[in-house]
Amino acid sequence: MNVLGIESSCDETAAAVVVDGRRILSSVVATQIALHRPYGGVVPELASRSHIEAIAPVVDQALAEAGLGVNDVEGVCVTQGPGLVGCLLVGFCFAKAFAFARGLPWVGVDHLSAHLHSVQLIADPPGYPLTALLASGGHTALYYLESVERQVLLGQTRDDAAGEAYDKVAKMLGLGYPGGAAIESLAAKGDPRRIAFTRPYLDKDAFDFSFSGLKTAVYRYIQTQPFAVERNAADIAAGFQAAVVEVLIHKLLLAAEDKACPRVALVGGVAANGALRLNLSRAAEAKGIQVFIPPLTLCGDNAAMIAAVGYHALKAGGVSSLDADVYSRHRV
Ligand code: KG4
Ligand code: ZN
């Protein structure tokens, strides 16, 4: 089944064609990063308007790159939430109209489920059950995935998401927006042991996260040490990153062991971080746990993951109602 996926929950307008939930024929992502950079974060109204301009050309491009025409599309999957409502509505209404006009089945897809199951698009995908850490700009949460339909939330952040903490620390260091990749490059030049920021474990045996204390510790260090940013930016970035990476890996592997689950997945925008990918792979190997991480193109927001997870609902005969609406907050 040729499925058209559409994603517009935040600052990326994306469309993809995926066959049978597995084979990506095309995956187009139009990012708005340059539009929002001067403001240091996503401006919702600007984001919605930019989605309106981009949606039709992005879908056209996805079909063209897949070598398909509109008549070849057999089903449509679109992000329903969570996300910015004005942004979600652009993709959602486009998908509804496309499906209605062509008499196609369509389903609304949860953005977090799509990230969680995005590892199923890699060449040698994991089976279920799977313990997964979703770390992005909006979410940091641990899940036990029993199947593509069933996922159990084990724990989540009580304040900032990991990516949000990266972005805020990047701002303190004058690195611009978004800050994840910039902190990663700067950290590579620093000494992660020179400034030992406290590890934000909360309870070391629990699965919830908290990153606001670490963010404040970095802020306090910058405020109290003379010329901290001028002289020690690389060590601050390295110390901050070491603390985040250590806690994320500890909790993911603890959850896998708690569930006696032999495999883990790392997904979401922060999964693009090289230090996190490498250290997780090493730590998991030492415990005999298999690690699955999507390629960078599938870590950030994309529509291939939407088409892939939605395909299973379409195959089971699921069709969303034309009355269906988007939702802004976390549901799964
Ligand atoms: O999944 P995503 O593209 O969008 C959301 O749904 O939030 O994640 C974006 C987040 C941003 O906070 C960004 O700073 C972070 O992922 N990120 C990274 C890296 N690349 C992106 N964080 C750490 N290291 C990276 N290399
Ligand atoms: Zn996302």
Observed structural traits:
single chain, alpha/beta, 2 domains, 5-stranded mixed sheet, binds 5'-O-[(R)-(carboxyoxy)(hydroxy)phosphoryl]adenosine, binds zinc ion
Please tell me about this protein's structure.
This protein is of the alpha/beta class and 332 residues long. The chain folds into two domains: 2-116 and 299-315, Nucleotidyltransferase, domain 5 (2-Layer Sandwich); 128-293, 2-Layer Sandwich (Nucleotidyltransferase, domain 5), CATH 3.30.420.40. The protein is 43% helix and 18% strand. The chain is built from eleven helices and ten strands. It has helices at 33-36, 44-66, 85-102, 111-116, 162-172, 180-187, 212-224, 228-258, 274-286, 296-299, 304-315; strands spanning 2-7, 12-19, 23-31, 75-81, 106-110, 130-135, 140-145, 151-156, 263-267, 290-292. The strands form two sheets. The chain has a five-stranded mixed sheet with strand order 3-2-1-4-5, sandwiched between helices. The radius of gyration is 20 Å and the shape is globular. Zinc ion (ZN) binds at residues 111, 115, 136, 301.
